[in-house]
Amino acid sequence: xxxxxxxxxxxxxILTLCLILSLNLAAATPSGERDTLINDGPYYFLSDDxxxxxxxxxxxxxxxxxxxxVTDGTMLPADLSLSxxxxxxxxxxxxxYRQSYKGIDSIAVIADVHGNYNTFLSxxxxxxxxxxxxxxxxxxxxxxxxxxxxxxxxxxxxILWHLFKLEKQAVKNxxxxxxxxxxxxxxxxxxxxxxxNEKYTKVEAITGIPYPALYSENSVLGKWLRxxxxxxxxxxxxxxxxxxxPELIRKELKIKEVNKVFHERIVGKDIYSFTENEDLSLLxxxxxxxxxxxYFEESAPVISSLDSILSYYGKAHIVVGHTPQKSITxxxxxxxxxxxxxxxxxxxxxxxxxxxxxxxxxxxxxVRSKL
Length: 371
Ligand code: ZN
Known about the structure:
The protein has helices at about 5-25, 30-35, 85-90, 115-125, 155-170, 185-190, 200-205, 220-225, 245-250, 255-265, 280-285, 305-315, and strands spanning about 40-45, 50-55, 60-65, 100, 105-110, 140-145, 175-180, 230-235, 235-240, 315-320, 330, 335-340, 350-355, 360-365, 370. By secondary structure, it is of the alpha/beta class. It has one domain: Metallo-dependent phosphatases (Purple Acid Phosphatase, chain A, domain 2, 4-Layer Sandwich), CATH 3.60.21. A six-stranded mixed β-sheet has the order 4-8-9-10-12-11. Bound molecules: zinc ion. Zinc ion binds near residues 112, 184 and 322.
């Protein structure tokens, strides 16, 4: 039985239409009108066994709910149909701290999108991760989202929901989506809104809810994000938002320990309150995995130090985002690959692609060149 309220279904249609319009017919809408009306959401919150949902449509707050058993809840951007079960599954997910995948033929990496949903879609489309209907097309491949969906741009929610949906579709096809936390996820969850797009100030005003509370522990997206790792490995590659510093290695923290500490003690907490605790300040600070910029600075660790980082984790490459580059940058003979290509600052950027042991740079027009 479909218990979905009609207004939610109507909204699904409008959202789908809005996406098509924004992708294909943006020029047809007078820019003043387009800029002043706000659309955002949905934001789901579990209360007893009911999912309360709110969203903003043409600057108006809308509310509804979703009850157990509903399987056709089409209420998301890009026709992302998710059921009550899909949405509430996050409340039962136990974080996997030791994430290590082997024998993966195809990997695609995108980083630091910062609310630029259209660039995100174009990149995934051109590089063969999604099809023209925006669904998973990458088969058994692994898509790594290397952190920083939040801040700067004005379509953060859309990116998160799209990854949420692709995660499900990927598993169905034998592939995987990995969402790694970046410093901007941590900042927003901690209430640091310095870089938040002004649209979300209006979202706060319309909903009457502080922005971080839209991602609270009992919200679907907030719960989903809180279970995400900071470091993972695939084949001989270590993925981390910013980097592993020599200081971090001195602590001899295994990947599963880093992910566990982040999950239990850092994500969603006040990240500026750890000054008394040496380990937490290191992990959440400038030499920690979501902030470190050392590989790209003049004082970059010497190769011996980098080798000891790689050998500690038994890997050959570290792939990082966080520090913007003009294009994908390979340092130290491909030992470090920087994939933040400025999408958060309006650049079309690049994706890093990996196929059977070779790295490639993929452009927004689908041109692929060997790294
Ligand atoms: Zn970052």
